[in-house]
Predict the 3D structure of the following.
Amino acid sequence: MRLRWLVLLGVVALVADLATPRGRVRAMALRLARSWQARVAIEGPSMEPTVMDGDWLLVDPLAYATRSPVVGGLVLAADPREPERVLIKRVVTIDPDGWLRLEGDDPDHSTDSRAFGAVDPATVSGAPWFRYWPPGRIGRLR
Amino acid sequence: MDLRRAFAPTRTAHAHCDVPCGIYDPVQARIEAESCYRIIEKYHASTDDVFRARCLIVKEERAELAKHHIDVLWSDYFKPEHLEKFPDIKDTCWKAAKQASKVKQGVDLDAAKELLALIDKIDEAWRGTGGAQNTRLAS
């Protein structure tokens, strides 16, 4: 069963590779593969309406390996009060020392930098960029 | 093959909110502080050592709860825009939390009274920022 999926994926990749500049397709495929490995389920209301409780997202774990997060970008970051808990928030400002101020898209239902202060950029573990579930709301995240 | 299970993430990202209910009311702190006040009165009125010891234990618990509720209001309820309207609120919450510690440490009735007054000031800011309409259910 898994083999059939792999073959299908291979065919799709081959067609895509033939149809577009090859480097871009391979980079996209790699990004997809690593984002699939780092996919997350959302729990909590603080990012509504961008992301809802129960959404499944692809997360690029290397998005910030070579560049810093930008204002307005979505990030996964460790909760400074409970580092094993991974938070999803949006960068609202960046302090002069490079630390990030994160906030939820629904500020009335979000505990974020307003409560726990700026966050060390080293604790950012990736950029959520695509929702693949539920089927009705599949699409890129902004 | 269970497609859903195959596609399900194994990790969770928290779109986190400490109090997802969004319900806040300084009355929670007020009730604990009133308990402290009454217990301190009872403590001074009694000569029974066992009863007085119980008073101290209960007062410590209640004062700690008052402090917790004050902290939650400050860190979760009050927003930057509230501070513009009530610029003293940070200082008031800070003083109230410290006052709760004072009530926890001693048996001074005036300290408990002062805690109540500070909680009432927080209550004023909570009402003034629409807390009564927005963070409680209509009864």
Q: What stands out?
A: The radius of gyration of chain A is 17 Å. Chain A has three helices and seven strands. Chain A has a mean pLDDT of 90. The first helix of chain A runs from residue 2 to 19.
